[in-house]
Amino acid sequence: MQADSSTREFWNVNSRLSLSRHRRFDSGRGSMEKVFSHFADTISRWTGKPATFVLCALAVVVWAISGPFFGFSETWQLIINTGTTIVTFLMVFLIQSTQNRDSTAVQAKLDELIRVGEGKNEFIGIERLTDAEVAQFRAWCESKAKHARRKSPPRDDRKAARAKAARS
User: Per-residue b/e over 72-111, b at no fewer than 16 CB within 10 Å?
Assistant: First the structure.
């Protein structure tokens, strides 16, 4: 399939952007966003590794073992409660940022596939609809699928029809 000029232009711009990612942080507009994106990606990759889980589990075991030495005091309990609360609070934002960026990238890829393929262009941008509008759109798609199933013969009949046509 041949790419049209707008698609080629997009990929040329995109490849320039991906090349600029390898440079440290570009100065200028949006540099804080780039710094945060880089930071969030790095932390997300790091925290998703098994070694990080083992490290955190080890910290909890050390904390639990140290309980008798501190007499299971309120300060001892406060240490783990405060630490886990702060880490959880910050991780929520980092994970959400990473999820949003990944979701947006996947959506853009799907939109491009719909645009250049045989899909209906009405699908492009449906992620911005309200839940009720998406439900209506889904119901419309389901009704179209049912209608198409009624019109077309079962799969085995289609294969037989193709084989018969090929013999003719």
Answer: eeeebeeeeeeeeeeeeeeeeebeebbeeeeeeeeeeeeb
3-state secondary structure of 168: coil
CB 97, CB 36: distance < 8 Å: yes
* Count of Cβ atoms closer than 10 Å to residue 127 Cβ: 13
User: pTM surpassing 0.70?
Assistant: no
d(CA 157, CA 153): 6
Helix (H, G, I), strand (E, B) or coil at 124: coil
What percentage of the chain carries pLDDT values higher than 70? Answer: 76
Mutual angle of helices 50-66 and 74-116, in 10-degree steps: 170
For residues 84, 90, 94, 95, the Cα torsion angle rounded to the nearest 10 degrees is 40
Cα–Cα distance between 8 and 2 in angstroms, integer? 10
N-terminal to C-terminal alpha carbon distance within the chain: 30
CB 6 within 8 A of CB 60: no
Give the distance, in angstroms, between the CA of residue 120 and the centroid of all CA atoms in the same chain.
23
The DSSP secondary-structure symbol of 70 reads G
